[in-house]
Amino acid sequence: MYSLCNFLSYHRYSPQHCSFIATISQDIEPHSYTKAASLPQWQDAMQSELAALEANHTWSLTSLPPGKTPIGCRWIYKIKRHSNGTMERHRARLVAKGYTQLESINFHDTFSPTIKMIIVRCLLALAAAQNWSLH
């Protein structure tokens, strides 16, 4: 095996940059629900995501048709940072496993959140105020 220290050196980086690297290297983003569920900060992030999905009426509970299997989902965990490298918050996203869909069965039933109406209104107001043309 090749040791990474034979190819990578930090001696040319400033002390501030080395401190930044050390700071962000300490925070670990979990890769599984089991690891995240054992940590309170990630539990709070998952609860916050579920509350946001519920507040936005992202889904409605229905019964599954006979002979159909549901599309699974999984959690994605990220640490959001300010521009100076300090931690802003823990972010958990619940995403659907779209790769399990089958064409002509549930292929057309996908959902991808793209933009909120308030953003469209802001962009239209900005375009009107700046006298920009839209197409």
Describe this structure in words.
The protein has 135 residues and is an alpha+beta fold. The chain has a domain at 11-56 and 75-110. It is 35% helix and 14% strand. It has four helices and two strands, in the order αααββα. It has helices at 15-26, 33-37, 40-55, 117-130, and strands at residues 73-81, 87-96. A hairpin with a 5-residue loop joins strand 1 and strand 2 (87-96).
Low-confidence stretches: none
The amount of beta strand, in percent, is 5-15%
Largest sheet: 2 strands, antiparallel
Structural class: alpha+beta
Helix content class: 25-40%
> How are the strands of the largest sheet arranged?
1-2
- Overall geometry comes to extended
How many H/I helical runs?
4
**How many angstroms separate the termini?**
56 Å
- Helix-strand pattern: HHHEEH
Based on CA atoms alone, the radius of gyration comes out at: 22 Å
| Number of beta strands | 2
* Mean pLDDT over the residues: 82
Protein traits:
extended, alpha+beta, single chain, 135 residues
